Amino acid sequence: QQYTNMSRVSYFYDPEVGIYYYGPGHPMRPHRVRITDTMLRAYGLDKKLDVIDPDVANQVDVDLTRFHSDDYVDFIKNITPSSYQVFADQLLRFNIGEDCPVFDGLWDFCNLCARGSIVGASWINQGLCDHAINWAGGLHHAKKHEASGFCFVNDIVLGILELLKQHERVLYIDIDIHHGDGVEEAFYTTNRVLCFSLHKHFDYFPGTGALKDVGEDQGKYYSTNVPLHEGMDDQTYMMLFQPLIDKIFENFRPSAVVFQSGADSISGDRLGCFNLSVKGHGACAQYVKDKGVPMLVLGGGGYTLRNVGACWTYETSIMAECEIPNEIPSNDFVEYFCPEYKIHSPVSNMENKNSFKYLESIRDALLDDLTHVQPVSPDQQYVPPEMNMDPSANMQKLEDAKPDERIPENYQLGGTAAANPKEFCDPSELKQLLDFLSFCFKSQERGKFQ
Description:
alpha/beta
């Protein structure tokens, strides 16, 4: 189905998302979603969107066990900072620690992030919108059994599973600087989902996503990984992105797309080392949107707040087909963008360590791999167990079948260990902490937190 007129775009935002707080110095800040919402409203973009009422969305059942294991979900549901010691013997098992800390409201936060992606996918399935946006989603590292890389639940996998109820083939695109390992792992043996990830690979978290990682069994060649060195700029990024997307659409013919728009691939990110501009990052969303299939657009990484707010506001305008001026209107967070107060900022002069020869070689290799991809008819489709009664059996199959083939290479840890803690002490943190404490006090009065 081609959308030639103005697209109907649903937008999920829950005001409580900005209150949740990973802790002092932690680079992951849900507050960035509140900044984005405030900015897009200052531009009047909310008038171009079908804003989903959180009360309506809250009526949708969120079953995290459609992907995650029962014991892991029970753990996330019950652990709190006050009960931390009770669960001390399970922390290592579920990968809870510095990158993925326990904080007040963790269970509610996980449900909020997952709900936005599930509701967005459901709205697309029902024909209530052409595209859906959930900037609180995009948590691509979470695994079936454990948290990983700041991610506790994999809302992307849950959203894709929802789309697969109505769509024969779903394309997952990940332009976060980190490999979308949790999503790829979930669909590594199926030909109904093609995972396409461009990411910094060498000596970098999570260490997966090599060129040779193409899928297993019926899913062979349905994982397309673009391993990159630091310094990728707009021109070299699109040199890979456009021809590979064209080939994927030509051969795979997806009927829906999930687009993970991690903003840590933008120049100046505190954990990232690519050199994309906001305009270049948004060009990827525009290029996919122009293909004319429904898109579920999600957030992801992004640890410089002004970059995230600018990027996701700009990409909201792309999805809403509404041009916005470069000058940022007055809003509660406009001072993050001083002194320029503009959406588009210059990139750095960092060296691009990806040679033309290297980029050409991986592009050609991947184009060759994609010749093996074809749009399978319903009677030919391999339907793995996660599409039926047991959404996590596929993961066990992957773990049992060649367990050493996707062992991560050496990498830097993906959280605070990879950064200078001083970089994360900006003026917003004290205010956010005070807001959070106030929220906790009010929530305790309502009986929300024990």
